[in-house]
Automatic annotation (TrEMBL):
It comes from the Bacteria. Belongs to the flavoredoxin family. InterPro entries: Flavin_Rdtase-like_dom, Flavoredoxin, Split_barrel_FMN-bd. Pfam families: Flavin_Reduct. Residues 9-164 form the Flavin reductase like domain. Keywords: Flavoprotein. This is Flavin reductase family protein. It comes from Oryzomonas rubra. PANTHER family: FLAVOREDOXIN (PTHR43567:SF1), FLAVOREDOXIN-RELATED-RELATED (PTHR43567). Gene3D superfamilies: Electron Transport, Fmn-binding Protein, Chain A.
Amino acid sequence: MKQSLGAKTLLFPTPVLMVGTYDKAGKPNIMTAAWGGVCCSEPPCIAVSLRKSRHSYDSIVERKAFTVGIANGAYMAEADYAGMASGRSADKFGVTGLTVVRSDVVDAPYAEEYPLVLECRLVHTFDLGIHTQFVGEIIDVKADRDTLGEDGLPDILKLQPLIYDTAHKGYHAVGPLLGKAYSVGRKFM
């Protein structure tokens, strides 16, 4: 029998997304967001939800752009720090030693160290309560060559993206392939 836990944000897993922006003064900032994911296939779009109090909020509204880097275990401490410190008072790139790269397709920076980066143009904004959801059309995806599989696409086991446990506030990694999508369920067709 299931036990009621009430209305909580208990979705498993959630991604650890590194949102890159430039503020009014042109200062690069990076923040960690776990409330996000793919929200449309055509055009390809990703959504991230931020509180209005976050420094990155106004930057996305003003610049109409942001990047999303995929955090991995090698830079877990940097990702954690970027979610705790505010870009209003801290130079998160400088403190962590992450390398700022200016996107060549949108008005936003990203960290070179994260192996996969989505460069996004803001297309929609939705006020949802204490969070605002920003929907960005993915204009380009950049990936480190050593994370690509033989098919030329990112290999999740090579990326080793961080995933966030919303219940216990912990970081985890992905495990081995359990089955192929659009295949294992065919036995019920």
